[in-house]
């Protein structure tokens, strides 16, 4: 018996009816599994294994212990979301603005982050948006404004909102049930790459993970007509990230944590690219098979990615804000 301890192995059932045999990769080598694999559900197409035992029996290898498996979960499934109150969403959205300012992504009083509030029976669909006129670094939980889907203020806290800016967000919130949070930026690196003909290049690991998962919306001028809103939502499609050509970036997520973590990856990859190209030196393109492997096997919208964003990445951001500017909670 050989013992293998490893961090992650991907399973893929061949077909819904192929319950007895699964495939896995370990250190680049393919393995066929049967036996316990037969116990997998017919639709167990995507499972992860943290550690385990491989036991070779004749020509078959059987996975024996320590299986942690889960069906691929579409991030944003409302049934899978943690219950969130308006109070919690206010804290998280204020934190997102503060963190964006901390990373230098803000554009004075421009651009918006929005979040959909929990549905209340008999009440219109409601969202939180930044108070128009405040810089990101000034926003607090109580200063966020509650608006309806048209940007009309639902509970007046003394601050105005940029109604025209919100309609872009409402189009995305409406088009995607799993877009609980929509982030839009004019970050200097994101804007720079949005203007490049070839967009995000395969220059670094972060870019490799996300570059084929980004929608592109063509620039149509600063005015956002009804027709453009629809085209923007269509350009986003099923993606969670988007370049607005010659304009900026957008990220969506079921939660603020997931949207922010995706935006972090995009803005970071753009920053790496601008710095790399600024050297003016020839850049190295990774092997095409590696590019394809990273594209296909990382950055997935699954349960583990959502857990990473919600339970590790976002709490780290909050701890940093609590050290630097805890007043965002007011
Ligand atoms: Zn904009």
Determine the CATH superfamily of the largest domain.
Class II aldolase/adducin N-terminal domain
What string gives the helices and strands in order?
EEEEEEEHEEEEHEHHEHEEHHH
Identify the CATH class of the largest domain.
Answer: Alpha Beta
- Give the strand order, joined by hyphens, for the main sheet: 11-10-9-8-12-15-14-13
Principal-axis shape equals globular
Rg, nearest Å? 22 Å
Number of spatially distinct domains: 2
Number of strands: 15
Structural class: alpha+beta
Query: Level of helix content?
Result: 25-40%
Annotate the secondary structure layout.
Elements: E1 2-4, E2 10-13, E3 22-26, E4 29-33, E5 47-48, E6 52-57, E7 60-63, H1 86-102, E8 113-116, E9 127-129, E10 145-147, E11 153-155, H2 163-175, E12 181-185, H3 188-194, H4 205-210, E13 214-217, H5 226-236, E14 241-244, E15 248-253, H6 256-278, H7 288-297, H8 303-324
Parallel strand pairs: 13-14
Antiparallel strand pairs: 1-6, 2-3, 2-5, 3-4, 6-7, 8-9, 8-12, 9-10, 10-11, 12-15, 14-15
The chain binds zinc ion.
The site of zinc ion (ZN) has 5 residues, from loops.
Describe the structure.
This protein is α+β, with helices and mostly antiparallel strands. The protein folds into two domains: 62 residues; 252 residues, L-fuculose-1-phosphate Aldolase, CATH 3.40.225.10. 33% of the residues lie in helices and 18% in strands. The strands form three sheets. An eight-stranded mixed beta sheet has the order 11-10-9-8-12-15-14-13, sandwiched between helices. A hairpin with a 2-residue loop joins strand 3 and strand 4. It is globular. The N terminus is likely disordered. The site of zinc ion has 5 residues, from loops.
